[in-house]
Amino acid sequence: MSDSDFRTFNVGFDDDGIRLDRWFKRHLPDTSFTTVAMWARSGQLRVDGARSTPGDRIVAGQQIRVPPEEAARPDMPGAPKKRDRPELSPEQTKFIQELVIHRDKQGIVLNKPPGLATQGGTKTIEHVDALLDGIQFDGESRPKLVHRLDKDTSGVLLIARTTRAAGYFAKAFSSRTAKKIYWALIVGVPSIEDGTIDLPIGKQPGSGGEKMHVDEAEGSPARTRYRVIERAGNNTAWVELIPHTGRTHQLRVHMAAIGHPIVGDGKYGGQAAFLTGGISRKMHLHARRLRIDHPDGGEIDVQAELPTHFAESLKHLGFDEMLGNMMPLDTPPPPSKAVKKQQAKQHAKNVRKDRKGERRNRGTEAAARPGAKPPLKAKPKPKPKTPGAKPAPKSRPRTQY
Length: 401
Description:
Elements: E1 7-10, H1 20-27, H2 33-42, E2 46-47, E3 50-51, E4 63-66, H3 90-97, E5 100-103, E6 107-112, E7 144-145, E8 154-160, H4 163-174, E9 179-187, E10 194-198, E11 201-203, E12 212-214, E13 223-232, E14 236-243, H5 250-257, H6 266-269, E15 285-293, E16 299-303, H7 308-316, H8 321-325, H9 337-367
Parallel strand pairs: 8-15
Antiparallel strand pairs: 1-4, 2-3, 2-4, 5-6, 6-8, 7-8, 9-14, 9-15, 10-13, 11-12, 13-14, 15-16
């Protein structure tokens, strides 16, 4: 088997910190754990060129080298028997197909409803990954997940239809060329209406990895931009959130950290995250828009309609959905305090330089006028006398005889 036969995948930010075997379960679900372990023992499975084991933790940006699909075929000697997935019912197929809002030869975009997990786990049987057979359509292979949304987060979810597209989209997410826009309702109104939250995030001790928190000492870098779209007094605000990194629960942790938890997010906001007056207790976090380069050229730019509870909350608060659609996508974020300070220093320096040049020019112009007196020359300053010093005696001419 030559090096050209191997497949290469880039680790996305959504997979930062997970075990290697968990990555296979997410992105190559047809590859069993036994096969992954066999590849690791034989040295065929490598991360950034180094031999790896299924239990190794991977980091966003790393490159995973995997043997070709034929190496995991069940008809090969010694290959494990492939597990058959249960066939979908007509109701399940109809359900997943009704979620499709974009489809082409390389990708499918779903509008994931809140309450539906992206992948399976403990006591989680119904999830998007289990329903992907229902949207294979005329494709040659089963669609593949390339990123995730939390169970209670709704909105845009991109699915790759080919192995090539899966690698391409995963690289776009890991290199941050993909643009994701979220809408959220938050408790209270930030004092700064357009700001950036730059706080590292890590797993909260004692939570079994199920909960994250701001960890200045050992957390991974995380950055989120937010913009206030509209406000309802001082109680609630509708915001646009743009993650510049992809940490687990990043948007939820960051908004709670600045004192404005997402409405309905009891996990990070506690009881304070729930509003009265007819506002739903469901989480109000929605992946509104995704813009990503397409493997065949051009780009995918798609928006997902709000779930019912979110749309009703906006209406109840008197917010106009059109205002969110009018937010410009590519405006640069506001400068940080350090940048503002440096800009102020540079501005003051330029002002001083300009004033100095003006004074010099005025002197030159005055000297050039007819009948103008020449500028006075400054008299040389006398040398300071040393206290107590006596003047040196004058030398007398020597007399020759």
